Amino acid sequence: MTDENTEAAGVEEETPSPGDAGAETEVDELTALKQELEERTDDLKRVTAEYANYRKRVDRDRKLVADQATISVVTGLLPVLDDLDRARSHGDLTGPFGSVAEQLTGALTKLGLTAFGEKGDAFDPNRHEAVAHLLSPDVSEQTCIDVMRRGYELGDRLVRPALVAVADPDPSAAKPAEEPAEATESAGEPAVAEESGGEQEAATVGDGAGETPSEETAPEAEKPEGDK
Hints:
Blueprint: H1 2-14, H2 18-89, H3 95-110, E1 113-116, E2 128-136, E3 143-149, E4 151-154, E5 157-160, E6 162-169, H4 179-227
Parallel strand pairs: 2-6
Antiparallel strand pairs: 1-4, 3-6, 4-5
């Protein structure tokens, strides 16, 4: 009987209780749920990021299409703006014609169109197109001295460069500043020659002055002999 009781007790110890098995099952299920939740959360974040990038790309493409359409319309009106500039320079933008010109210019300005290109502007090869180059001692950098046709920008995009004549710095303009020093040195040489020449003349005159008394005293020495 003792052996049978001992074996029965060992079997009872090895067999897990129903409560422990249920707890382990709940832990496994909870771990699986947490893992699945993390996976679904990552999927949601990825989908959200992809959608945000898609919205940005669509907005960028939409703006690009709108800008291209605006540039196309504005480019077609540039010859009209050139005619208005010529009329303005001749004083012909008066009356109703001037009012229409102001309205057109104002409408294009609201679209973001800006004109550039004035005399005295520094030459920028990215915004200016040079049709002539002249050397000038009055400039220290490439400068626009005449504007044949103004340029236009739409926002930060170049629509058309300005046609300009450019004055380039004259490299020979700095040389005359060195010439006066050379002229002073060359002018000093004749002065030295004149001084040396004057000294020689003075020496010659001095020698002649010393010989004159000897010639005059000779006749005076002969006078007593004549009297005898």
